[in-house]
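Posting for a labmate who doesn't have an account.
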Amino acid sequence: MNMTDTIHLVGLPLAFKSDFYTKSIQHLAGIDLVENKEEHITLILQQLETEKADLAICPLSQIPVNLPENIVITALSQRDYPKQFLVIPPTSLDKNKVLNLAEGVTVFVDDLLIEKQLLDIRKDLNIQQGTDLNVGHKEAFVIKSVQPINEDQFSNCKIIALHPSEFVQAPGTGVYGILCRKNDLPLRRKLKPLHQPETTKLTNIERTIQKGTSENTSLIGVYAAYEQGLYCVWAVHQKTDATALHFASLRSVTFTNLAEQILAEYK
């Protein structure tokens, strides 16, 4: 496309609230930009393929690992990994129990991954999808935040930070991606300075594992990080709803073949 033309940007609503979106707009300064929000990644991909949109911005965790042949991820953001916090009101607290949760208490969560992992540790818990934020914190709940949470907001509650290596989130969590058509080289060059190669090393590991299990899984969580000079991977996999969770982890001085080694454990 001619970079003097109008550019049509489409994205999931959450992406328009990200710092990466702001940086993307700055790189497109001086260009007439038309924005449109869509609720589903399928509709976004359709708009790119049919040239109704020129680029898209989405959380990487919601971008399929198998994209249409003419669609590519042209830039990835730095990772801003959301931490998960377990908030326990006094009525649900038992410091003698694992996770400090009393026997059989209700815990509200917002996704299936955290539900399955909590139940793997404590099968007695009553896990509910939703949030307890609007009912006065009468039940325990898990929230996600990229910032340290304000403990004053949850007075009298016990707050436990859940480490991502123990409670793994979806592959690509905390990263935003920009999608373009493969042949739109002017636009891809314009956005290339936004791309974060170090992020790519880690998310490639995560998405390779996701892709390698996609035909034989009902649930997959992967987290890759670079810590103290080592590349680290933690993964959780469930083949069917009736099978147990399978956890795997590796550490290596190089990221080469880390995904393949995790996949070998799942065969």
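Reply:
Got it, the structure tokens are right above this. The mean pLDDT is 89.
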